[in-house]
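User: Teach me something about this protein's shape.
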Amino acid sequence: MNAYDKLTGALIGLAKTTFNDAHTPALLQLLLDGLRAEETMDPARLAALTDSAAAMKRAYAPGCADCASPCGRTADYDLDLLRAAPTELRADKERLLFCLRSIAAGCSSWRELSPETAQLLLDGLCAVGEASDQAFIRPCLQRAEEHIKKQ
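Assistant: First, the predicted structure itself:
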């Protein structure tokens, strides 16, 4: 798995970990920075963002790293699962990731995020990592596409 895919998987894991928690400026900025990252970016920068996501996950859920019975709630997402998904589901997940990256590209700072947009980024990342059918992912994809039309 390349550094870009590792970062994307780590962002999905971070979103799942922090979903029910307060969304701090540091969390929102990291999500923006990670979603704005590009495949052609310096691998060291991608690795640094991935490490930051892992550190933030440990801060939000300190006991999970050493849990004897991991539930998967804080696990990074393996993008090979996306690639192996049925064609239509894979297409929806890839489209949703594209939309989330487009939304993030329009913001240079967490201060520019409305609470609704911040929640959309978290919901979208979680949907990519959790959705096993289109009925779950399509509403989130529709929200993201509507948001982009308004930008």
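Now, about its shape. Residues 87-105 form the longest helix (19 residues). The chain has a mean pLDDT of 90. If you'd like, I can walk through any region in more detail.
User: That's plenty for now, thanks!
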